[in-house]
Amino acid sequence: MNKISITKNRTVTILLIISSILFSAKVMMSQSTKQWYKGQTHAHSNKSDGDSFPRQVVRWYFEHEYNFLVLTDHYTVTDITYLNPYKDQNFILIPGEEVTDTFEKKALHVNAINLKSTIAAKHGSNVVETLQNDIDSLIAAGAITQLNHPNWLWSITVDDIIKLKNVKLMEIYNVNRDSNNFSAGGSPGMEEVWDRVLSAGICIYGVATDDTHDYEGEFRIEKAYPGKGWVMVRATELTIEAICDALNKGDFYASTGIVLNDISTTSKEYKLEIKQLGDEKYTTQFIGKNGEILKTEFGLTPVYMFKNTEMYVRARVTSTNGVIAITQPFFLKEKQIE
Predict the structure, then answer these.
(1) CATH for 257-338?
(2) Could you tell me the sign of the dihedral formed by the alpha carbons of 139, 143, 145, 148, in that order?
(3) pLDDT in tens, 226-237
(4) Domain segments of the chain: what residues?
(5) How far apart are CA 176 and CA 156, in angstroms?
(6) For the chain, which end, N or C, has fewer CB atoms within 10 Å of the first or last residue's CB respectively?
(7) What's the distance, CA 165 to chain centroid?
(8) Global pTM?
(9) 74-129: per-residue pLDDT in tens?
(10) Which residues, 6 or more positions from 273, have their beta carbon under 8 angstroms from its beta carbon?
(11) 196 touches 190 (CB < 8 A)
């Protein structure tokens, strides 16, 4: 090889290295400009079966330091044009509806996030067809779809969910007494349902919600009161477009009380940074295919190093005060995802 060829090869190598460094720096800068925004994607007012006016619902979430709220009443999309007096105070509203369908007394409910006008339930000849008809109509209208409380009345099974197309979000923790979030009595809880769906190659992101109906009187256990489950969304700005984009991409986590400062994934690792609250102690479980616990770690900076044999990895953080956070699945091979 002559000197000219050697010089050319070195130049190309140097340029490739510089390009790689600049790309990495751009990604890091983009990530660092994002912020966490607290939001609720399932809440009702007295425009359906809640006990308070929409403006009262909005005030509750604003006063309790949420950044965004999706009002999801049954059979209606609430006009948010003049509903938000806090729009200049780091708080936005996103229009929505809980599309309410049924088949043989099963509750088949799909939230439509960022839906501009009411969409009627489409119905079908079985559970899957009914849900799919509703989902297709909502996507055509430009909304993000969220499958609500599958275990309520044991309405939607794992097999049903696996057959659905284009579901973006699913309630893993609908913090209502009747939502059957946890495994017991031989029936799968929603995390188990989620892992079975993910293990079938279906990527659906998990949310926690209030499904709020009760804002007045005592907050008793049988009430669907606010402030029990939410999402923390990482977005470039607090706008409907940025929040919905982050939800679509799974750039968020769900929580019932734990705060995460950071979530990062690379080709080598899945890492969390947990915010210390009071004297709580934390356990993080990294979870893979079929719900297998891949690693358990204590402390504030748990990390899982990939072995490249995993299908996907997600994380669950629990605290000594009984609250949790769940993060989204990271699929190691995109071809495994539908």
Answers:
(1) 2.60.40.10
(2) negative
(3) 999 999 999 999
(4) 34-256, 257-338
(5) 17
(6) N
(7) 17
(8) 0.89
(9) 999 999 999 999 989 999 999 999 999 999 999 999 999 999 999 999 999 999 99
(10) 260, 261, 262, 263, 300, 301
(11) no
